[in-house]
Design a protein that fits this description.
This protein has about 160 residues and is mainly alpha-helical. The chain has 6 helices and 3 strands, in the order H-H-H-E-E-E-H-H-H. It has a 3-stranded antiparallel beta sheet with strand order 1-2-3, with no helix packed on it. The longest helix is centred in the middle third of the chain and has 21 residues. It is found in: Membrane.
Length: about 160
């Protein structure tokens, strides 16, 4: 009994570009805190009362945004390693290495780097876009969001003028 050869589609420029795009998207998804964003998307309609403006709902929405934003930023400063027995351990990245450290492994290579801060910044930016431009949050914070661009522009102009 002979095995059939596996079919391999021909490699074309379009296929190569598509594959590179999908690989890049997969890498991006691995870097973003998808669990936090999913939890925010799940709880936001409940806590905002589907966009109805009550004072309590504004505070609840603000707390949810703050906690979720902290989680997105904090996730950029965590990492994991596998010990010699195959167990996965998680820790917080510090200047000296991963904390809590392992007595049997050298974890000094897990140090804070500029990339960790860049990753945290962009994770927060992506979360802010998802959170603040969502339909329920936008309806609660629409007046603030309408005033925000001119305020940021004015503050930036002053800073650029002074410096």
């Amino acid at each position: 009994m002979s095995q059939k050869p596996k079919y391999a589609p021909p490699t074309t420029p379009t296929r190569t570009i598509t594959q590179a795009t999908l690989n890049g998207l997969a890498n991006l998804i691995k870097l973003l805190p998808t669990g936090t964003v999913f939890l925010f998307q799940f709880l936001n309609p409940v806590l905002t009362n589907n966009g109805h403006c009550d004072v309590v709902n504004k505070y609840l929405s603000g707390v949810l945004i703050a906690v979720s934003a902290f989680s997105c930023g904090f996730a950029s400063f965590t990492d994991s390693y596998t010990d010699s027995q195959g167990n996965i351990h998680y820790g917080i990245v510090t200047n000296k290495g991963l904390w809590p450290s392992s007595p049997t492994q050298d974890l000094s290579s897990y140090r804070l780097q500029l990339g960790d801060f860049v990753h945290a910044f962009f994770a927060l930016i992506v979360f802010a876009v998802v959170a603040l431009l969502g339909p329920w949050t936008f309806s609660l914070l629409s007046k603030l969001l309408m005033a925000l661009p001119p305020a940021i522009g004015a503050a930036s102009s002053v800073i650029f003028y002074v410096s």
